[in-house]
Amino acid sequence: MIKTQLLLKVNGREHEVWVRNDRTLLDVLHDDLGMPDVRYGCNEGVCGTCTVLLDGSPVSACTVYAVQAEGHEVVTLRGWSDPTQEAHPLQKAFLERGASQCGFCTAGMLLTASHLAEERPDATRGEIRHELVGNLCRCTGYTSIVDAVEAYLQQREGQE
Amino acid sequence: MSQQLTSTTEDRTPATCFEYQRAETWQDAVELLSLWEGEAKILAGGQSLVPMLNLRLAFPAALIDVNPVPTAEPYVEDGHLVLPALTRHAVLARSELVRRHAPLLSHAVQFVGNVRVRNRGTLGGSLSHADPTAELAAVVMAMNGTITVLGGNGTRTIPAADFFVTYLTTALAEDEVLTEVRLPCAGGSSWGFHEVVRRYSDFATVSVSVVAAEDLTGLRVVLGGVADRPVLVADALLDPVLQAPADAEAVRAAATGIAASVDPDSDLHGSADHKRHLVAVHTRRLLEQVLADAGRDA
């Protein structure tokens, strides 16, 4: 038996899919369910473009098999910030500081940074860099991304 | 000829698709391992195994997913910090108990991979994978940990220093699975950890871990990335330091001697001489730091 029938819960919706055991969560989200906000990059857990939240924590969708995701909650960028609604404050901070250029890494950056904001709202600039080091960006040189996350954390703190 | 090559590739493609089986208990995992007679691999965090399969570097017939096995939080028992095999790196990094009883581990784990690797990766998986540059393998060895494994013949414990055999190879038998790691509580120890990486979050070119008990007994130094497994530095090379901990020249000479005792491979990360140089520099710095810390406490 190398194909399995799965019920995957993605962005609050249940999807019934038949998958080969060696299909990663990335393969199924991107190819089978047609989600463009989960992107192929390195396929070895290094680059961060396929980042999704699995039960609330950022993981590489390329290093989790789809069969392992059954019974767990998967959230992609669109589940975190609905594109038909107003942009998330962290997305606005990225726009204001030019932290997104070609946009390929942005989904992973946003999901990773928003998780950091929940876990450590008082993260220092060094801690932001440490957290985002596994998300590669070939456009911005990273400074504007760290600036945007820092600004977002400060803004949240101001609101409390 | 080309036709033949094509058909060979096609024949192999289905073989890359493994059977997927879930183990609900460690005993399940052991039974499945023996059924597959060495053709199956245990899937824990998957942060090394899945990339290896994605890159077609491994072709297991089956993956035995142990993630459903119920796992406890780290706890203390009989003067030991007990870490269940499925403890994820992120738990090691944020656990107060680990910080208190294994501060070296708590510190070093933040250098493992990236945040996604730490969210999925497990202690048992990292040790079973046995990458000779791995932070956790070196640290568990430096802390004189023991590794508990379960197999067809029951449970046995293996000192960390005997667990790592060579590249990606451990003392685990075909039907054995790592279930637990026990570290002597080392809250009062002095310790230090350095690693040299080409890129932040990458595998270590060289790592050095040093632990000393409060009264300077049990000084242990482990080097990562310099051999086919983590290397525990021989007591004879550390004796001069213990005789004269305040003598800067003795410490320098010992660090140089330790570096000369290893025979690392030259590779993309650096030549053998460069790696020995890194060992000498970082061992000296850490010995100075740890000896000063231990002296202050004494």
Q: How much beta of chain B, percentage-wise?
A: 15-25%
Radius of gyration of chain A: 16 Å
- Major interchain interface with per-chain residue totals: A-B, 30 and 28 residues
The coarse silhouette of chain B is: globular
Helix content of chain A: 25-40%
As a percent range, the share of strand residues of chain A is 15-25%
- Helix content class of chain B: 40-55%
Distance between the termini of chain A: 53 Å
Indicate the CATH architecture of the largest domain in chain A: Roll
Whole-number radius of gyration of chain B?
20 Å
Task: Write a brief caption for the model.
The complex is a heterodimer of chains A (160) and B (298). Chain A folds into two domains: 3-80, Ubiquitin-like (UB roll) (Roll), CATH 3.10.20.30; 89-159, DNA polymerase, domain 1.
Describe this entry's structure for a reader.
The complex is a heterodimer of chains A (160) and B (298). With 160 residues, chain A is an alpha+beta fold. Chain A has two domains: 3-80, Beta-grasp domain (Ubiquitin-like (UB roll), Roll), CATH 3.10.20.30; 89-159, Orthogonal Bundle (DNA polymerase, domain 1), CATH 1.10.150.120. Chain A has six helices and five strands. Chain A has a five-stranded mixed sheet with strand order 2-1-5-3-4, with helices on both faces. The longest helix of chain A has 17 residues, at 143-159. Chain B is an alpha+beta fold and 298 residues long. Chain B folds into three domains: 10-65, Uridine Diphospho-n-acetylenolpyruvylglucosamine Reductase, domain 2 (2-Layer Sandwich), CATH 3.30.43.10; 75-184, Uridine Diphospho-n-acetylenolpyruvylglucosamine Reductase, domain 3 (2-Layer Sandwich); 191-297, Enolase-like, domain 1, CATH 3.30.390. In chain B, 41% of the residues lie in helices and 23% in strands. Chain B has 13 helices and 14 strands. In chain B, helix 11 (235-243) runs antiparallel to helix 12 (248-260) and helix 12 (248-260) runs antiparallel to helix 13 (272-297). The termini of chain B are far apart. The A-B interface holds A 1-2, 4, 20-22, 24, 43-46, 48, 51, 54, 57-60, 62-65, 67-68, 112, 130-131, 133-135 and B 14, 16-20, 43, 46-47, 50-51, 53-55, 63, 65, 67, 90, 110, 113-117, 119-120, 200-201.
